[in-house]
Every structure is written in C-alpha cells, then in structure tokens.
Amino acid sequence: xxxxxxxxxxxxxxxxxxxxxxxxxxxxxxxxxxxxxxxxxxxxxxxxxxxxxxxxxxxxxxxxxxxxxxxxxxxxxxxxxxxxxxxxxxxxxxxxxxxxxxxxxxxxxxxxxxxxxxxxxxxxxxxxxxxxxxxxxxxxxxxxxxxxxxxxxxxxxxxxxxxxxxxxxxxxxxxxxxxxxxxxxxxxxxxxxxxxxxxxxxxxxxxxxxxxxxxxxxxxxxxxxxxxxxxxxxxxxxxxxxxxxxxxxxx
Length: 251
Ligand SMILES: *[C@@H]1O[C@H](CO)[C@@H](O)[C@H](O)[C@H]1NC(C)=O
Ligand SMILES: *[C@@H]1O[C@H](CO)[C@@H](O)[C@H](O)[C@H]1NC(C)=O
What we know:
4-stranded mixed sheet, binds 2-acetamido-2-deoxy-beta-D-glucopyranose, signal, alpha+beta
C-alpha cells in the first residue's frame, strides 16, 4: 500500500494499485457519520452515539470532497482481514446509562442510519428498528441492532462491493429497560467471490442505493413550482381585473 502515494496523480494507476489486497491483509473499516434517514444533510459523528469506540479516536485525514460531504471518518474497532470470514465475534460491551438510553431511543425514533467506509465503499444501515403495532391499543416499540453482519464481495485482489445486514440476530428492546444496561455489540464478516470487474464497482454501488432515488424529490419540487406559478398568475389576473374595472368605471 505504501506505493500508492506515488500514483496519486495518475488516477487510473492509483485505482489499479492502491486498492489491491493480498490474502489476510488488514482491511481498514472507518466509522463515519450518523443522521436521520429523511434528512441526509443533518449528520453527526458516529462516535457521538454510545457505541463501541477505541480508547483513542484516530481520525482519517480527509480530501476536500469528503469534507464537503460532511464526512468525519475515524478508525473503527472492527478487525477485518482480506478474504477471511469472521464468525460472530464480540466487538465490545457498553453499559448504557439513562441518558445513553434516551439518546439511542431518540435516534431510533428519528430513523437514524449509520455510515461506515470500507475501501472507499460506503456501508449504510439503520441504528435500530421501530415497531408500530395495533390501532387500539396502539403499541410502539424501540429496538437497537447490536449485531452487524458485513458482506464483502471480492474479485482477485480487489474489493468490489460491501454491505451490512442487521437482521441476523434479534435486536435489543429498549422500552422497558432500566439503566445501567449492559449490551454486547457483535459482528461477523462474510466474503463472497464475484465475477464483477473492479471497473464495475461504481455501477454495483449505484444499483444498490440506500437513499431513495432523487426522482420523487424532483417531482415534488416541480409540483411545488407549478402551484407557485398558478398562484402568481391568479394574483396578477385579480389585480388586472380590478384595474380594468376601475378604468372602465372612469370611462
Ligand atoms: C490473519 O491475520 C491475523 C492477524 O492480522 C492472524 O491472527 C490470523 O491468524 C491470520 N490468518 C491466516 C489464515 O493467516
Ligand atoms: C449484501 O451483499 C450480499 C453479498 O453480495 C447479498 O447476498 C445481499 O443480498 C446483500 N444485502 C442487501 C441488503 O443488499
């Protein structure tokens, strides 16, 4: 990986040489941001939540693009080695106090997602899960995902795609618990071989978007603009009619 820095200017060579891994080489997982799913511009650092964090938090130096994107990458505690699967392993145990529990409940109610970054691939999932049931009586339950299963697709020496699934283990119910509550956070890693080429990984990511397509947002803003245009035309017509009437009355 040291050789990478020589190729930074030559973007193509950079892509070919720098994202190469040999078997069992350490693959760094960065934790990045968290925020409400329906407001992607509001983001916080992942370590602002009461989660597993290293004793000393080390931040990654970011490129300008990443800074403008609101990125705040820091080293995670996940230990991931190229092409070596990890069966369910404990990451750490966290003891939640009452304010931690409240923070998590609020984040889950606001549908907070998290974003990690592995080999420049964003990996996104939800912090927890809301269960709304019954109409009368209405039930409302808040769950925390304490286990993350990472899936990583590779081809030869390259990582092509990665995602996370939270549903492999039952989540922790945060409703009727009292602080202090100790929760064990766990993870697992599964490597899948794929035929997709390194050049196709951008496409692979676009095909699996986490955020809704922006198309609907475009439609909303078009309707919004049309309503505004009709209102303005309406005002102009009303004003003109008044003017015409006064002119006719004077004549
Ligand atoms: C992979 O590397 C880790 C340490 O980085 C080591 O503990 C493990 O035994 C290695 N596995 C293999 C199959 O070489
Ligand atoms: C995550 O990736 C794995 C392996 O490629 C795939 O089987 C799975 O369907 C993916 N999950 C989601 C939610 O996209």
